Amino acid sequence: MADGNTKRYGDVAVEIGDDYVATVELCRPPDNYFDTALVAGVGEALHDLAKDGRTRAIVLCAQGKHFCAGAALGRREENPSGRHLYDEAAHIFAAPLPIVAAIQGAAIGGGLGLALAADFRVAAPEARFSANFARLGFHHGFGTTVTLPAIVGQQKAWEMLFTGRRVAGEEAVAIGLADRLVPLEDVRAEAHRFAADIAASGPLAVRSIRETVRRGLVDKIMAATDHEKSEQDRLRRTADFAEGVKATAERRPPNFEGR
User: Fold this and answer.
1) For residues 55 and 96, is the Cβ–Cβ distance under 8 A?
2) What is the pTM of this model?
3) Which is deepest, 34, 77, 78, 255, by most CB within 10 Å?
4) Rounded to a whole number, what is the distance in angstroms from the first to the last CA of the chain?
5) Pick the CATH number of 3-184+201-212 from 3.40.190.10, 3.40.50.2020, 3.90.226.10, 3.40.190.100
6) pLDDT digits (tens, 9 = 90+) for 244-257
């Protein structure tokens, strides 16, 4: 991005192009670990773009090696608004413009949840998608229990949710988790071309169609995240979660004891 043409929402940068496509970029390289403030910045940017009269489609991307490697474990920053992380996540899902995510590396845990908030995903072979919560002894969040089954089907979603295994870019396209596979160096450009194709359609029609297709999604996300929050709070107090976090930090398999 050219810094002179960007608007900042904390660690989120926004640039509006001449072809009705805006770029929303996470700026915490190389891993783009998120906290509530970062998710809030994404949501605020998406809603502001929907009101500016110059944007019809959005590319969601990230600086560095990875799209978003999840939450920074052990660092829980508070959002100045006082809203919970998942309230800010629901705000992203409520944004009215179509979104194409550019996935160049890892989209892990909540980072996968953020990628699934987009309408489409362009991936490189090096991309890695993982719902790794169970490997932490934890419950999934960010509405992943709603979005993942809707995109890849129940059985594939269950496998990913229960095992936490990583899905590379080529497989992601094969199972519908990503929509296009291109070389790493072309991911962002292809996402922009995809968004420009959408932006060339009638903007009122696109918004109307998207609202129809996604009708009820925000309500489902809010209901899911309410339950996810409760289960995460419960499991955060278990020995298994402590072991999962420790094992991840030490890069070893966890030794869960079911307590």
Assistant:
1) no
2) 0.93
3) 34
4) 48
5) 3.90.226.10
6) 999 988 999 999 99
